[in-house]
Amino acid sequence: MQLIKKYNYADLKRQDGDTRLYLTPDGEALPSVTTILGKTKDKTFLKKWRQKVGEKKAEQIIRDSGRIGTALHLYIEHYVNKHAYKDLTPIGEKAGAMAQVIIDHEEGLKKISEVWGSEVHLYYPGKYAGTTDMIGLYNGRPTIIDFKQTNRPKKREWVQDYLMQLAAYALAHNKLFDTEIDQGVILMCSRDLLFQKFELTGENFVRAGDAFMKKLDLYNKSII
Description:
The chain is α+β, with helices and mostly antiparallel strands. Helix content is 43%, strand content 26%. The protein has 6 helices and 9 strands. Strand 2 and strand 3 form a beta hairpin. Helix 3 crosses helix 4 and helix 5 crosses helix 6. It is globular.
């Protein structure tokens, strides 16, 4: 795996809150991809789940998932940059084991030959912005790569928001750098250390990009 600075990625300032915004070099304040998807998501299932497990337990599960996700990303980022990293907390040890599955799996980081950037800030001028986990060559093709943790294995129909994220970041990269990235991949590990891969290519990539743009339209209409 080679680290190659192929593009000059901007370091955008982020404003967190109910609406996460990124400040671009052009002076725009653009909503994040995750904010757009979150504000336009059907939350019926989430509400039912909260009622079923209880608000206190739901908040604990969400908080733990966030902490594990953050730690997992740190492990992979440090691995790619060849820096030693250890988190000896129970959350950190769990995340470290999950990250190692993604690192060691034949369809995981071993398929990545070049890394152009990790934790890369991207924006589509006048539309949206966000941070993707990694950009580089996966299986020889330019790819937007995201790493995910999950409490239990996922079906493809459950990760449609993640797939739309990949397409949105690819479209932003193509707009900024005149590239033709048309592939995304999610590398995921569950708490019981099961590896999963979800690829986004061809017609599925086009549909995911179109679906995200429709979400963006809904979001823009909701804030008028």
